[in-house]
Amino acid sequence: MIDVQVVKTTPAHVRMLTLSSGRVNALDVELLEELTGALGELRRSGGGALVVTGAGRVFCAGVDLNRVLRGGADYTDRLIPALSAAFEAMFSYPGPTVAAINGAAIAGGCVLACACDRRLTSPDAPIGASEVRVGVPFPVAALQVMRYACGDRAEEVVLGARNYRGAEAIACGLVHDVVAEGLIEAAVAEASGLGEIPADAYRHTKAQLRAPTLARIRASGDIDREVRQLWGADQTRQRIADFLERLARR
């Protein structure tokens, strides 16, 4: 479920978008489609300042891998376009976006946070792009978002597939600041401050900055077809099953 609420601030109101899906806010096709739809509605209503966070103690633990195992290739053929659409919708949102990373932001959750303009995190929240460690490739949109966020550290972050916290996460470009107390309040204040910038100037400048990345995402049909095939392959499902079994033994 996607919950959007207005937080009344002065002078610019901020909308709070909260991911709420099970214990770890895992991404499935339905949640991704709801997220893309909610971002579209916000864009059509003016594209104002937005804080993105997760319900409970986790920001987002990435794709619901159990759904992938149950659904097979038919499901992953829907999942990869849904992931790409959600990442692109967040990355291209015209107004200011601030991720309040209140807990683990892993794999797709990391990408979703990195698609935001600013990222604030609590000190102990792990963040990392672990896809290759699980044994699945990145959709182009996800990889391009990580490249934009992490710059010359992107290869280390993506191919190393490890989690970061605190100052180390800042050094890699995954987050901008660590907030020990009052994370949501700090994120709202930052979004409100960015919302004071004239909207047309912010939108136009952000669009120019992100245009090359969006062009690469939108020209990625052939690559993402291969990504869908790899996600739906029997050997990939076995890798996912092995990964989940290792997690259960921890």
What's the short story on this structure?
This protein is an alpha/beta fold and 250 residues long. The protein contains 11 helices and 8 strands.
Throw out a few tags for this protein.
250 residues; six-stranded mixed β-sheet; two-stranded parallel ribbon; 8 strands; alpha/beta
> Helix and strand succession?
EEHEHEEHEEHHHHEHHHH
Q: What's the count of strands?
A: 8
How many strands, what sense, and barrel or not for the largest sheet? 6 strands, mixed
Q: Describe the strand arrangement of the main beta sheet, using strand numbers.
A: 1-2-3-4-6-8
What do you see in this structure?
Helix content is about 55%, strand content about 15%. The chain has helices at about 30-45, 65-90, 110-115, 130-135, 140-150, 155-160, 165-170, 185-195, 200-220, 220-230, 235-250, and strands spanning about 1-5, 15-20, 50-55, 95-100, 105, 120, 125-130, 175-180. The strands form two sheets. Strands 1-2-3-4-6-8 form a six-stranded mixed sheet. Strands 5-7 form a two-stranded parallel sheet. The model has no long low-confidence stretch (mean pLDDT about 95).
